[in-house]
Recover the amino acids of this structure.
């Protein structure tokens, strides 16, 4: 079997899976999206609110990637390649926060 | 002899197994999604940077109409992800009519989303929001808001056009189920981006 054919078979198995399972995932995603709106009206500080919304968004995105985009049906090495690349780049972007707080302090001290 | 060795080497190279066992077009779409994810992440990080470093960042959004509008837009986009999944499944099972129907339903959902988004923009512009000024505080808010939501909106509009083109091509036999799946991946990615835009750009800026 050629490469494309093999992949086609794997995709077929996953895409031919029950609509009911995907409907459950869809409902879960709607519930998580709804929870984000609930969190927005909780009386908590901004950092806690950000953290909760971020975690909910990560779970929701994870469900979409694994089930709607069928990453769960791809080969593990593909998943690892995509995940490591993205996680590394996104982690490196976090270096901006220290400068962001520095700017905030400058403005408070004025 | 040397020539035959070269030919053999080339043939072996051509038959080498793909490390990911994934069609090249699908791999290209995944690479695009990865790069686009970094683009959106960079914009959201820049937005977070500005919001964090700016005292008195505007919080102009009220439950009605903005939050209600964002709820409806989220529902429409997540639902369109599910209808796209049904289209992909139908295409994979060889159900051409079903694939076409669900792909167009997805595209219509995308159009509804875009119209709601434009209505939201018009409302905010009517309240005085501009790229570099607004009545609520830091002038950077407008630039950040319009850049992030505008880039997402352009992705939705581009996705609607692509889905329509692929659906028509699929009906005429020019494209196959694989093409529907590839653009389905793109559509789900647009959906995922919205899951981060809503909380960070809208919900963290609700007026209390």
């Amino acid at each position: 079997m050629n490469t494309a054919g093999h992949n086609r078979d794997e995709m077929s198995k996953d895409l031919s899976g029950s609509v009911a399972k995907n409907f459950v995932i869809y409902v879960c995603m709607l519930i998580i999206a709804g929870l984000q709106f609930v969190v927005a009206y909780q009386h908590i500080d901004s950092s806690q609110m950000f953290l909760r919304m971020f975690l909910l968004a990560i779970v929701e995105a994870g469900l979409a990637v694994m089930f709607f985009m069928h990453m769960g049906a791809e080969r593990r090495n593909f998943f690892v390649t995509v995940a490591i690349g993205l996680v590394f780049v996104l982690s490196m972007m976090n270096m901006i926060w220290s400068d962001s707080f520095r700017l905030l302090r400058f403005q408070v001290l004025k | 002899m040397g020539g035959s060795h070269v030919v053999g080497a080339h043939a072996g190279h051509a038959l080498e197994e793909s490390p990911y066992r994934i069609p090249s077009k699908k791999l290209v779409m995944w690479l695009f999604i990865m790069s686009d994810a970094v683009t959106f992440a960079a914009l959201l990080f820049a937005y977070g940077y500005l919001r964090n470093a700016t005292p008195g960042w505007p919080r102009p959004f009220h439950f009605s109409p903005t939050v209600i509008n964002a709820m409806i837009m989220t529902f429409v986009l997540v639902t369109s992800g599910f209808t796209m999944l049904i289209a992909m499944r139908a295409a994979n099972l060889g159900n051409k009519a079903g694939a076409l129907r669900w792909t167009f339903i997805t595209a219509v959902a995308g159009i509804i989303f875009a119209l709601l988004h434009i209505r939201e923009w018009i409302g905010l512009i009517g309240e005085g929001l501009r790229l570099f000024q607004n009545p609520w505080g830091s002038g950077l808010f407008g630039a950040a808001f319009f850049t992030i939501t505008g880039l997402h909106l352009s992705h939705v509009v581009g996705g609607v056009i692509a889905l329509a083109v692929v659906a028509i091509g699929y009906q005429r036999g020019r494209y196959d189920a694989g093409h529907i799946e590839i653009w389905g991946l793109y559509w789900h990615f647009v959906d995922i981006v919205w899951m981060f835009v809503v909380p960070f750009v809208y919900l963290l800026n609700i007026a209390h």
Q: What stands out?
A: Chain A has five helices and no strands. Chain A touches chain B through 56 residues (CB under 8 Å). Residues 1-6 of chain A have pLDDT under 50 and may be disordered.
